[in-house]
TrEMBL record:
InterPro entries named among the record's database cross-references: DUF6624
Pfam families linked to this entry: DUF6624
Domain of life where this protein originates: Bacteria
Residue stretches spanning the membrane: 6-24
Protein name: Uncharacterized protein
Length: 196
């Protein structure tokens, strides 16, 4: 009986400590919920995508994703809602920056949405609406999400290059996708590349 009492006291103490920690740090944690479809006016998709692009780039420059989590989440909802309600845009309907906004919204959302809409990204790349670089970056991120080695070496995890398939030929693959040599890319992250 004493052991159970001691266990319960320890458990309640831990719960209290965690609760106090979360309460004190509540502004550092943002749960934004699931990505939902929102009402969009297809005749205003150009304006919406301009705002999404501008917002996404501001968020990335500020490098404070916790502070901007709600705005980032809203961008993702807008992009997904445009695709669902209006269809995947093309360069005949929008400009390159607006197409890039579609890609950014999908690249920065959850795995299940990247995976779901990746065939549309592939088609957009084949049609010349998005670059091969867009394809490579999203493909690598999906592979990383699935716990598989990446192909093009674009993903960094915990300050290191994420697992890479056939590293000895990565620069050939990168060149085909319009990407710089991996050594140059990784210098930005202070990471040295070793193909072995």
């Amino acid at each position: 009986m004493k052991k159970i009492k001691v266990f319960l006291i320890i458990l309640l103490s831990l719960i209290s400590i965690v609760s106090i920690f979360l309460y004190i740090n509540r502004d550092k944690f943002t749960y934004v919920g699931s990505v939902d479809y929102v009402d969009v006016d297809c005749s205003k998709k150009i304006e919406i995508l301009n705002e999404v692009y501008k917002s996404d780039q501001k968020i990335r420059r500020e490098n404070n994703l916790i502070k901007n989590a709600k705005e980032d989440h809203r961008n993702q909802e807008l992009v997904i809602s445009i695709i669902e309600k209006c269809g995947m845009p093309t360069l005949k309907e929008v400009n390159q920056k607006q197409m890039n906004a579609i890609w950014l919204g999908l690249q920065h959302t959850e795995y299940k949405y990247r995976k779901k809409y990746f065939p549309l990204i592939e088609k957009a790349v084949k049609n010349g609406d998005l670059s091969k670089e867009h394809y490579a970056l999203m493909k690598d991120r999906i592979l990383m999400d699935e716990g598989k080695p990446q192909i093009y070496g674009s993903q960094i995890k915990n300050g290191k290059l994420y697992d890479l398939d056939e590293p000895e030929t990565v620069n050939e693959r990168r060149q085909k996708m319009g990407l710089e040599p991996i050594e140059d890319y990784l210098k930005r992250f202070n990471i040295t590349f070793d193909a072995n």
